[in-house]
Amino acid sequence: MNATPCSCPPPAATRTGVGGVAANPPVPRTLPPRPDLTAAIRPPPLYLSRFSAFSPLHVSAVVTSSSPYAHRAYVALGANLNDPVAQLQAAVAALDELPDSALVRRSSFYRTAPVGVRNQPDFINGVAELATDLDPHRLLATLLEVEARFGRVRSYPNAPRTLDLDLLLYDQAVVHTPDLILPHPRLHLRAFVLVPLGEIAPDLALPGRGRLAAWLPAVANQRIDRLATPAP
Length: 232
Ligand SMILES: Nc1nc2c(c(=O)[nH]1)N=C(CO)CN2
Hints:
The protein has helices at residues 84-95, 136-149, 191-200; strands at 37-42, 58-63, 71-79, 101-106, 110-112, 123-132, 164-170, 175-177, 180-182, 205-206, 210-211, 224-226. It is an alpha+beta fold.
């Protein structure tokens, strides 16, 4: 059979750059998500135009976030004592007051079946996204101070509580220290974390564990109901 003339480009593996320059080295296919960046493809700026034969299109990334704080952290909120909805509303307000930090968004609140020790009241859960300049350990210490202000008494593991604040993620950091593990070691196993987190960050990648959305089917048997309660 005769080969049909084709004006299409050669396959990627053999393609060369414009002007016969060898192809660029392969670009990694996946990069950590940066919700504060948007990418645009446009003609190169003037200062790059002398390279335009090599780079006919210019990819630029623009910081769109208005937050002055450099890092993104996700915090889980939970309570099942003393009017838990009011506890969570007050806790969200407290997170908005943290030093060197700003509350970026928070999820709906959810009524959830207790996981672990089952013989206790349902929990109210939610997740907040913070922009922060606190390092992960300082942020954790600050969250523990807020818990203490809300009267949390650590009686036994998984005991009912007025307020629980768990640091889930800090950028894409992986941390293993005696007092802090990131990402939170059980976040991918708990509907009461995954569902609200997925609500505010549906495309989130969990360091070392792939896309958040991929973990949702495995927790579909855990009872969780979104509340209509308006958040503060
Ligand atoms: N539904 C639900 N279950 C829990 C929760 C929680 O916040 N929600 N927190 C726990 C200890 O961190 C243990 N079990």
